[in-house]
Write a structure and sequence with these properties.
Elements (H helix, E strand, L loop, with lengths): L1 E9 L2 E8 L1 H15 L15 H8 L5 H19 L9 E8 L3 E9 L13 E3 L7 H14 L2 E5 L9 E10 L2 E14 L9 H5 L7 E7 L13 E15 L5 H7 L5 H34 L7 H21 L4 H8 L3 H28 L6 H14 L4 H7 L2 H20 L1 E3 L19
Parallel strand pairs: 5-11
Antiparallel strand pairs: 1-2, 2-4, 3-4, 6-10, 7-8, 7-10, 9-10
Helix pairs in contact: 1-3, 4-7, 7-10, 8-10, 10-13, 11-12
Length: about 450
């Protein structure tokens, strides 16, 4: 296979014109016949014994051409691409423009190549970094959660039920004089104020005592899930079997000793504050790094072949399919459950894929501009780390991964660290969102 010409026909697109001389083509056609003849049968010949000329006379002179050309492409095209220093990112498209036994084959090979991007301003990227200030209320909230986790349930028999109590309840619902389906329950555990029942129900249970029979009147919401009940008024005949409530432990030194590694309330509060401040710092750092990463991605403005995004999306989908498989779920079953198609699922990955491709190209460019390197010693150390982390030997790791890919990943990580270290954190007002109004569940169902 000989290269006749190489021309850049578009951005990230190169067209090779290649020729296969008549002698090489004849050898390839004969090899194709030899591969196929065992499966060829024809009247008057035993299977596998049909002469080549008879096959060509019967099926056409070009019967073995496609197989021959594909075999030559598979054998020789990769080396041709490497010799021409083309970094292809997709399967080349081949167009046969001329073919004959006398003159051989002429082909156009369209190669989509990896983009050579330009990158400026990757040092000194500015992004906001806001560390949440920890207030006394934040500390108190954490400690209150500790008290709630250590609360004990106490039975109540000397007063009526109150909001916040848990009651064991019997009830039956009626529309007029007729009981309705799903409206009856016995020994039902209900926390008053939880919003499990129809609005207004739990508030009417409060104020009643154990053993007391009473009625609760409510109206089903207009948007209730069962249309035949929506907007109707119902009466529930109720009785309480038992009442209990959670009793929180006193916040004192004894509580602290029993539930933590500290001796006093002040020590506990100091530790809680310290951890909240560390978490706030980590959250701010992560947010800052994410913002820096996005701004680095935005600096990649050169055209990028869409096939690179497609291939990355396919890779992400394969990773997801493997995760599903590990849980005993096939991709087909997942798509059936979610009502999605393969194409629709891929579409959800494309934006992430585009960002990942752009980020990788940017980091490769940073590594090039900064002349970053990963030494053989660094590579070996990473192999040993992976081996220890996964309970493998270094040789096992080397068999499972391509070392040059690992080296490229480490180089990208180095480049990202350089960008982050050079980034500038700026102050920004802390955004606060108004908390949405709490919604009440419609029913106990």
């Amino acid at each position: 296979m000989n290269l006749k010409s190489s021309n850049k026909t578009d951005v990230n697109m190169t067209e090779l014109v290649v020729e296969i001389d008549a002698e090489s083509f004849e050898k390839a056609v004969e090899a194709a016949y030899q591969r196929q003849k065992k499966n060829i049968s024809m009247p008057g010949f035993r299977k596998g014994k049909v002469p080549r000329k008879m096959c060509e006379r019967t099926y056409g002179e070009n019967v073995f051409y496609e197989d021959a050309i594909n075999a030559l492409l598979n054998m020789e095209l990769p080396a041709l691409i490497v010799d021409n220093k083309l970094n292809v990112v997709d399967t080349p498209k081949v167009e046969v423009t001329a073919v004959s036994k006398e003159d051989g084959v002429t082909m156009k090979v369209i190669c989509v190549t990896k983009p050579e991007i330009s990158l400026e301003g990757y040092k000194g990227i500015e992004a906001p970094k806001v560390v949440k200030k920890i207030a006394d209320e934040d500390v108190d909230q954490q400690i209150e959660s500790m008290r709630q986790r250590n609360a004990r349930v106490v039975s109540v028999d000397d007063r009526a039920a109150e909001m916040g109590d848990e009651v064991n309840l019997n009830f039956e619902g009626f529309f007029g004089d007729e009981a309705f389906d799903g409206g009856k329950g016995e020994n039902y555990q209900l926390k008053l104020g939880s919003g499990q029942f129809i609005p207004g129900f739990e508030e009417q249970v409060a104020g009643h005592n154990i053993g007391e029979n009473f009625d609760v009147t409510v109206t089903f919401p207009e948007d209730y899930q069962m249309d035949e009940y929506a907007g109707k008024e119902a009466v529930f005949h109720c009785s309480i079997n038992s009442i209990s409530h959670e009793e929180l432990p006193e916040l004192d030194d004894e509580f602290v000793k029993d539930t933590s590694d500290f001796d006093t309330v002040d020590e506990l509060k100091a530790d809680v504050r310290k951890k909240l401040e560390e978490n706030a710092e980590n959250a701010a750092s992560n947010s800052f790094e994410n913002a820096v990463t996005l701004k680095l991605i935005e600096k990649v403005t050169d055209p990028i072949p869409h096939c690179m995004f497609e291939h990355r999306a396919d890779s992400l989908m394969n990773q997801f399919a493997n995760q599903l498989k590990a849980q005993g779920i096939s991709m087909d079953l997942y798509l059936q459950y979610t009502g999605m198609t393969q194409d629709a699922l891929k579409e959800t990955y494309l934006e992430r894929a585009e960002n990942e491709v752009k980020l990788r190209l940017a980091l490769e460019k940073v590594a090039e501009l900064e002349k970053l390197e990963v030494s053989d010693e660094d590579l070996e150390a990473e192999v040993n780390r992976l081996a220890e982390e996964n309970n493998l030997t270094a040789e096992d790791v080397k068999k499972r991964i391509y070392l040059e890919d690992l080296r490229e990943d480490m180089l990208a990580t180095k480049a990202m660290e350089l960008v982050k270290e050079a980034a500038v954190a700026t102050d920004a007002p802390e955004e606060t969102e108004e908390a949405p109004a709490e919604e009440t569940a419609a029913t106990e169902e």
